[in-house]
Amino acid sequence: MNVHDEASTDAAEPRTGARSNPPAAPVKKGQSLELEVENLAFGGKALAKLDGFVIFVENALPGDRVQATVFKKRRSYAEARAERILRPSPARIAPRCEHVPTCGGCRFQDLDYAEQLRHKELQIEECLEHLGRLRVAPSPIVPAPKLFHYRNKMEYSFARDSGGRLTLGLHVRGFFDRTFDLARCHIATPISSEIVAFVREAARRASLAAYDTRSHHGLLRYLTVREGIRTGQVMVNMVASEDHPFFHALASDLPRAFPAVKTVVLNTTRRRAQVATGEEERVLFGGGTIEDVLGGITFEISPNSFFQTNTEQAEQLLRLALEGLDLRGDDRVLDVYSGTGTFTLPIARAAGEAIGVESSAVAVKDAERNAARNGIGNARFVTGEAMEVLRDRFGLGTRASGAAVDRPDIDAVLVDPPRAGLHPGVIQRLKHLGAPRLVYVSCNPSTLGRDLALFCESRYRLESVRGVDMFPHTPHIECVAVLRLAEA
């Protein structure tokens, strides 16, 4: 998959699972309330009810009794901020990280891990039932073996504090335009936090300015640190408004301070949009890539290519996907949204042929290079949007005249779409294709439930769903759903 983003949100209004019309609102903006927090809504917000009216509570956990102030009022719900915990939840624990009260990242470090998993299982089940109308109890979620230092990639933002001092760190919870100085991130690998401190101090000594989203002036935008978990190789990627001698000096200093740093890359952009990629990429040190190993396959990772950010749990995701595909040695398998081949290449090793479909030409080049370096000759990749490839290459739907048609006999399909899920047209084309086995890997149980309903209204039946906890202490959930052709 090419556009996963663990920091993105699902909708403006969190889901509660309720279908009926909400009761009349018993609260007003600015009102102070004593609330019993009952649950976590999908997306991670704590949920309380007052006379049946839903109130989402910031800075609270299930089981807490809090004094909270309402700061937003809508027809069907309100939002409040806990000012004081009157009675803490029995599941509350002391967080490891000093930034938990401020950081917008791993907001559940103070919730017992077993409770985190229980709530994620409930949210998967709720999404299947209320959005997919599917009454299937998910299998127990696969827990993470490492609760800390599991992320192999982190993006950090440059900004200014209220006094104008340069900061480098993560976003303040609820504010995408405010950044706090990071001391140490406990979900990133240790070297990542060390590099942040090194770069921040170097930038301060050079008296450089962070890019300002209001005035659109300033040099420094983002710092991304990636580490190959199995190789120890580190990539440092800077995003800035333009080239500057500072980055060239940094490219010399970083490998001396951190021998694990194998490459330093600069991405420059003049765009006003705040995205951690550039329009022009320049390798300042090393070869511009690092390597990691996933599922026994060595992957070369370029600065802006997608690679699963939790290597160990990605292997659990891969294991469940392969089990669901139930491959034979001569099977022909289609991998839609194949990215850099994270799933396609292991599939090719277990099947007769694997065909990856991916819209990003850069990702396809990475996938082809990774196939070659691992000696996998039975994987091939098609560049294009899924709708168009299924139409033009497989003859599913109205086909453009003169387009060459691939053989449509596919034994199994894997789809791993972005958070928005599958376009209904893609679902219809895959149903028309009618592969006997279909595995859906999802980073969003909400869109998964919606899409499974379309698959299961005809042709397919849902066999199983299982969550994989890729990101402990966060609300994000990965799932693997296995479908079988009903006529098979």
Verbal overview:
By secondary structure, the protein is an alpha/beta fold. It has 3 domains: 1-91, OB fold (Dihydrolipoamide Acetyltransferase, E2P); 125-144 and 308-485, Vaccinia Virus protein VP39 (Rossmann fold, 3-Layer(aba) Sandwich), CATH 3.40.50.150; 153-294, OB fold (Dihydrolipoamide Acetyltransferase, E2P). Helix content is 23%, strand content 29%. It has an 8-stranded mixed sheet, with helices on both faces. It has a 7-stranded mixed sheet with strand order 9-8-7-10-11-12-13, covered by helices on one side. A 5-stranded mixed β-barrel has the order 1-2-3-5-4. Helix 1 runs parallel beside helix 9 (445-456) and helix 7 (386-392) packs parallel to helix 8 (424-433). The protein starts with 31 loop residues before the first strand and ends with a strand. The model is unreliable at 1-20 (pLDDT under 50).
